[in-house]
Amino acid sequence: MILVTGGTGFLGAELLKQLTDKGLAVRALKREKSNIPPLVQDNTLIEWFDADINEPATLEEAFEGIAQVYHCAAFVSLSSKHKKQLFHVNIDGTSNLVNLCIENNCRLLHVSSVAALGLAKKGKQIAEKDFWEYDAKAHAYGLSKYEGEMEVWRGINEGLNAVIVNPSVIIGKNAGFEGSGAIFKLVKNGFPFYTNGASGFVAVEDVAKSMILLMDAEVSGERYIISAGNIHYKDLFTAIANGFGVKAPAKEAKPWMLGIAWRALRFAALFSRQEPSITKDTATSSITLSYYKNNKVIEQTGITFKPVRECITEITQYLK
Question: Name one GO cellular component term (predicted).
């Protein structure tokens, strides 16, 4: 049987859909008060199991009869104030899953992130062989995903049968305006600025498909970047604006402007008690040029990725 952590999340729900579309029975972990996404709500092939990856005692029963584990659960935030929770879930929680996979002789597919990879050298693309040069001052989310991945490598050294995927920014219509969908909401509402940065993007359906292909492949102790293509934020924002039929951002937000913005919003948050829309980490990420290679996963699985611009068109048409 298959176990999926983070089954109520954006990626986890898509993975559950694809697994059950193949007629596979799946046990999916969720927290007691979590809502099951509409995408998989009435799916009779899914056995929902209430457990917390940070409480090993609740996990042990979930591993009964399990041969494969997809670890999608994670805490995502680019706010430094969530550092403790990021480390608790993304590092300690992953460590618990690794230990139970070793004890129960399960094959593990761990969802890491491109945030756990090395920074790009000028004019170069980031590949799987690039490891992040440890920096304690790096943003907390990236640090938590790096350390979480190190737990999986630790397990591999102890005999764990595992493979790691490092998705770039995952997009899809079912995100709505949350998570990566916040970018679409920002542009749709007439945001006038763009930043001089770039990153990789990939459809959630292709991430889930890649994961299933890699789980079934005879490969272990490897990591794979899952990314459809790289796009500059100016081009991304323009494509989204065109999809919504609104004016594209035409003003470049300079680094010094972003510096003032995140500081001002942090100060305002002290009084409003709301999360600032721009943090120091998001400001830094928005002006970083990060290009990712995807040839390794293509060679391993033969997958054909949906082009990023095609994804944007589909998402904007749906969100209209």
Answer: cytoplasm
